[in-house]
Amino acid sequence: MKIGMFYVNECHDGKHDRAYREMLEQIQYGEELGFESVWLAEHHFNEYGSMPSPAVAASAIAQLTKKIDIGIAVSILNFNNPVRIAEDYAMVDILSEGRLKFGSGRGYQPKEAKGLGISMENSREKYWEAVEIIQGLWSSNESFSYYGRHYQVEDIVLTPKPIQERIPFYYAAISAESFDYMVEKGAREFMVTPTLMVLDEVMRYTKQTRERLIQKGITPDILLNLQMHIADDPDEAVRNVEKEMQVYFNRVLSLIPGADGQPVPKSYEQFAEVAKTFNSSMDIAELDKAGIVLLDNNKNAIDRLAAVEEAGITNLSCWFRMGGMEHNKVMKQMKRFAEEVLPYIKKGSAQKTGQ
């Protein structure tokens, strides 16, 4: 299992120059520590995430690093013209010398869609049309045309082309329905996170989906994104991040469909159910027990991560910086994870592959 880092890059004090500087320093340090990838999330109009253009951040990271993969988790395809998305990330692939891993989603925050003047109706249909256009432009050696219900593209030759013959293309799968889409579409890569389901349920769907894809002749590359913190014991791990995690969960739960009794767009009903389940007095320790986060000592963390690898996870993105956590605290946690957990996960993965 390959181990990386994840960033939405929350910024609660408005000092985005500091937030970006710290993120870049952490990523450079992560590469030195042995992390193999970094994953960036697109968000708009609030302190929950400060990367409206992950392509810009990815290009900066490409110039500051030498070998880590640069992943997008995710680019919200419905928020931009798919031709422009294809162009931007072709440039990222070139600037990174072929290190791009592209993750895609349809978006879920009504405030973002409203701010961009985009309807959330028919979002899944629009998303899959955008997927076909981006993949078509990247793979076609001649002019490409597409005539869909929502997008039409005629005789376009993408210039420049990506370096990679095929850019890994991850789909976000967070609901039971989306796992079925992974099988229907023959997904070679997809990503999961315990958001709408607890971890055991996510892993059950992941394992089942992997088995169904293998029956179709596809062995998928599967990314798990997980918030985590390692300490001497589980209680200390909870105490260390309880404040930051309360900030994070309170903020994100105010942004999802159905928050504060707002209307819920069709196909986003599960998000609204999550909004009803949680409240401002949520117990962070209970979230850990449910596997929604990983807050533990090093030995238990190794065992828990070995279990997700057994379920078929091939890539893990570690979310260390959540809730506006202080820079030094993040750096210390990255170092501790790299020293106390990472070698054992890599050793176990090597033994499984006979290396």
UniProtKB/TrEMBL annotation:
InterPro entries: Bact_Lucif_Oxidored, Luciferase-like_dom, Luciferase-like_sf. Pfam families: Bac_luciferase. One of its GO terms (cellular component) is cytosol. Keywords: Monooxygenase, Oxidoreductase. The keyword Oxidoreductase applies. Residues 1-314 form the Luciferase-like domain. One of its GO terms (molecular function) is monooxygenase activity. This is Flavin-dependent oxidoreductase, luciferase family (Includes alkanesulfonate monooxygenase SsuD and methylene tetrahydromethanopterin reductase). The lineage of its organism: Bacteria, Bacillati, Bacillota, Bacilli, Bacillales.
